[in-house]
Specification:
The chain has 302 residues and is an alpha+beta fold. The protein contains eleven helices and six strands. The chain has helices at residues 9-18, 37-49, 69-81, 97-103, 112-124, 128-135, 146-158, 167-179, 208-222, 262-272, 280-284, and strands at 182-187, 190-194, 241-247, 250-258, 291-297, 300-301. Strands 3-4-5-6 form a four-stranded antiparallel beta sheet, with no helix packed on it. A two-stranded antiparallel ribbon has the order 1-2. The longest helix has 15 residues, at 208-222. The protein is globular, with a radius of gyration of 23 Å. The protein starts with 8 loop residues before the first helix and ends with a strand. The model has no long low-confidence stretch (mean pLDDT 87).
Length: 302
């Protein structure tokens, strides 16, 4: 395939060849139409595996992925390309007929995981702005504890007045309360792990107002990390970087930097209205590092 570089497209070609026995058409019959290498690669996947030309475009990316889940999704591509129903493929979660239908019409820039959520929430009657907010959370990447999280999807669908901007904080709060062990720092370098605060938390009988009050109180509690021990974190081996780009006479300055203290996390959390402050304990123990991406142009900071 002319114009495809060594990575990731070459690896994608190898994955296409791995399923050569399942090709529907000879490779030699393929005539690329696009000059864009990404579109050209997508055209090739449809030529080889898409009998009726109706496999969603977002599925093309599964051939470029290297994660474990992508193996299953490449099987999905072949399955759909032969005209089979998604519900007869091996799915990480149960899908109704309506969910499978909406999955096929997810936006082209979605991952397969996000498209599954799109199908679920559309079938439940959610608005698109709520769906876009939801797929940007951990639920757009993972299907762990799906039995509980499906009750959250139903809650979102049943409460259309819930501000989509609050969906991310709600998901973070529920994850923390039901599934995240509580890390207590007894002294610098000494920790005790306790069960999650509410391991039996349920969405049954909850109202939006009550839930948002709980989320607000939780965020306020995160603000107390300023006074905790081990406030400074170990620096990562990567120093971050700054770069400047020009476009249309406008110069934009981009900066990626590590958040190196509890105060940094708290300020970031307050400014962007998310729960990054809850990562204090993981950062203090050296389990992870948190980074900030910012830009400024013509005196304006973003």
């Amino acid at each position: 395939a002319p114009g495809l570089d060594n990575t990731p497209f070459m690896r994608g070609l190898i994955k296409l060849h791995d399923r050569k026995a399942l090709w529907l058409r000879p490779l030699g019959d393929w005539k690329p139409k696009s000059k864009n290498r990404e579109r050209r690669f997508g055209e090739l996947t449809h030529h080889l595996f898409d009998k009726f030309g109706d496999v969603p475009r977002f599925m093309e990316a599964v051939w470029l992925r290297n994660d474990r889940a992508s193996w299953r999704f490449r099987d999905w591509y072949v399955h759909l390309g032969r005209g089979h129903n998604l519900r007869t493929a091996k799915s990480p979660i149960p899908l109704t007929k309506k969910m499978a239908h909406h999955f096929l019409h997810a936006p082209n820039n979605y991952t397969v995981e996000q498209a599954i959520r799109w199908g679920q929430l559309h079938a439940l009657g959610s608005r698109e702005n709520a769906i876009h907010a939801l797929v940007a959370t951990r639920l757009g990447r993972s299907f762990e504890n799906e039995e509980f999280w499906f009750t959250v999807l139903r809650f979102i669908a049943n409460n259309p007045m819930l501000d989509p901007r609050q969906i991310g904080p709600v998901v973070d709060y529920l994850q923390n309360q039901r599934f995240e062990p509580n890390e207590i720092e007894l002294a610098p370098g000494h920790w005790r792990q306790e069960p999650p605060p509410q391991p039996a938390l349920s969405m049954s009988g909850r109202t939006v107002d009550a839930l948002m009050r709980q989320v607000t109180r939780w965020h306020e509690s995160l603000g107390r990390i300023r006074g905790l021990p081990s406030e400074k974190y170990d620096k990562a081996t990567f120093d971050g970087f700054a770069v400047e780009r020009s476009s249309g006479g406008k110069r934009t300055h981009w900066v990626i930097r590590q958040l190196c203290s509890a105060r940094d996390l708290q300020l970031e959390s307050e400014e962007l209205q998310h729960c990054v402050a809850s990562y204090h304990w993981s950062c203090a123990k050296g389990d992870c590092t948190i980074w900030s991406l910012s830009s400024s142009a013509n005196g304006q900071h973003y």
